[in-house]
Structure formats: C-alpha cells, structure tokens
C-alpha cells in the first residue's frame, strides 16, 4: 500500500538509489499521501466506494434471503495511475505495457 511505499522510497534514498532512475516503485491503493510524496507514487487503485457499495449490497441480499449462501467472488477493474515513481528500465529498448488497465 502507499504507506509501505513511503517507507520503500525512504529506504531506497538511504541506500543511495534514486526513484525512478535506479528503481521504479508501484503501490496498490491511492490514498492522498501518494500524490504528496516526491516522487509522486505510481499506483494501482481500486475504488473504496465501489467495494463498500458491493459489499453492502451482497450483505443485505444475504440477510434478506435473496442472495446466495455461498461466497461470491467479484473482480473489480483497477486503475493504473502512472505518476513520477516509475519509468521503463534503462537500456531496455522498446517495451509494451500489457496490463489491460487504463492509464490515468
């Protein structure tokens, strides 16, 4: 998550490494601190609102007897938000991002 990402940025800096020159950092989550750090953290983000809304909907359906008794697996499409903490590796030639996620 972004809190761990902040620690990673600090540890890399203490090791004399520069982000993203020497190493890219990508985190999961998108809390406000991600866009306040330097470099701004690149993230894979999920909507907490959407997750909460679906969880509430499934819970209410289950309580009312309309929902399935078994666990439901739901896959939400994340957003890949490219900021300053990542870039292609040096000397790698041409690369393609094949994640299927949208850049924002």
TrEMBL record:
Keywords tagged on the record: DNA-binding, Repressor, Transcription, Transcription regulation
One of the record's GO molecular function terms: transcription cis-regulatory region binding
UniProt xrefs under Pfam families: Peripla_BP_3
Residues in Transcriptional regulator LacI/GalR-like sensor domain copies: 3-86
InterPro entries in the cross-refs: LacI/GalR-like_sensor, Peripla_BP_I
The protein's name in its UniProt record: Transcriptional regulator LacI/GalR-like sensor domain-containing protein
Organism whose genome encodes this protein: marine sediment metagenome
